[in-house]
Design goal:
One of its GO terms (biological process) is phosphate ion transport. This protein is mainly α. It is 75% helix and 1% strand. It has 13 helices and two strands. The chain has a two-stranded antiparallel sheet with strand order 1-2. It starts with 5 loop residues before the first helix and ends with a helix.
Length: 317
């Protein structure tokens, strides 16, 4: 609760002369501060309510349009392993497996790379190259997703096709490598923010122990950044699951469960983009709402898991 302070009143007295003239009431500064605090709290509360209602509205929209699938054999048709719309088979499970596999392999590449780059920027590497690395990472956040996909189509896909002499090159591997670059800035910047919070707190301690910058990062900062690592993993995974253009352009879009990294696959997001462009009335179209609901639940599950891990980590601390 805000408390009236004579000192703050004197500070704001001069600023408020333009409003009150030369006769500023003694308590005017305190009243002004209290009013601004109440307005700020009201605006923050309103923003939180709007955001929460928007999320609930999206969930309600997806559930409402998914209800027709619960009648008859609709749910059985959607939760199956075959997508053959012209034969009455509308299974989306291969696309669900494709989304999870692609996101997992992308994070398997992006997370170690992001951790290494962040450690390089915070003491393992020289200062000037480290600053250059962080500048490049920040620049990567401004590059449109379609540019990553377009460049990969002409550079990465031919390399995959030539290196393995199998298939067209549009595969799980090509999409995974490109998607790992796309989520890399998210991982690096989240870890970077966590490192910047920890380093000032332990700088004097590590210096007193005679640790070098590399040793301080390895033995002190990195173990203390566990929460940041969990947050980077969750946000990166969510970014990978929700991306559409990279899997649409590079994964081959075959509605099947991939048997190897060189097989074509289709994700839920790419499936939505492909079907919504060609259909708007059939069961195939209705299955898209089930896809959206699955993506929504996946995102919520990732965030809830992150919160639970953070609470458990805080309890042990």
């Amino acid at each position: 609760m805000a408390v009236y302070s004579p000192t703050l009143s004197r500070i704001h007295r001069h600023e408020m002369r333009g409003v009150w003239g030369d006769h500023v009431p003694p308590a005017a500064g305190g009243i002004f501060i209290l009013t601004m605090e109440r307005i700020t709290r009201g605006l923050l509360l309103l923003s939180a309510l709007v955001a929460g209602l928007a999320v609930l509205a999206i969930l309600g929209f997806l559930v409402w349009f998914s209800l027709p699938l619960l009648r008859g054999e609709g749910l059985t048709q959607v939760l199956s392993w075959r997508w053959r719309p012209f034969q009455g088979e509308f299974g989306i499970l291969p696309m669900l497996v494709g989304s999870l596999c692609l996101s997992a392999t992308s994070m398997a590449v992006a997370l170690p790379m992001g951790l290494g780059l962040c450690c390089f920027a915070h003491g393992v590497g020289p200062r000037k190259p480290a600053a250059l690395v962080m500048g490049v990472v920040r620049f990567m956040t401004s590059v449109p997703t379609v540019v990553y996909g377009f460049v990969a189509v002409f550079l990465l896909v031919p390399l995959v096709r030539a290196a393995f002499a199998s298939g067209s090159g549009f595969s799980w591997l090509a999409a995974s490598l490109t998607l790992s670059l796309l989520v890399l800035p998210t991982v690096v910047l989240v870890l970077h923010a966590q490192f910047e919070l920890i380093e000032p707190r332990v700088r004097l301690t590590t210096a007193a122990l005679g640790l070098t910058r590399t040793q301080a990062v390895r033995y002190v900062v990195l173990p203390a950044a566990r929460r940041g690592l969990l947050a980077a993993s969750a946000l990166g995974f969510g970014r990978a699951v929700g991306d559409t253009l990279v899997p649409l352009m590079l994964a081959g879009n075959a509605p099947q469960v991939p048997g190897s990294l060189l097989d074509a696959m289709r994700t839920l997001t790419a499936h939505i983009a492909l079907v919504v462009a060609t259909d708007s009335q059939s069961t195939a179209y209705l299955s898209l709402f089930a896809c959206g609901l699955i993506l929504f639940v996946t995102s919520v599950a990732v965030n809830l898991t992150l919160r639970r891990l953070n609470r458990a980590d805080g309890g042990r601390a």
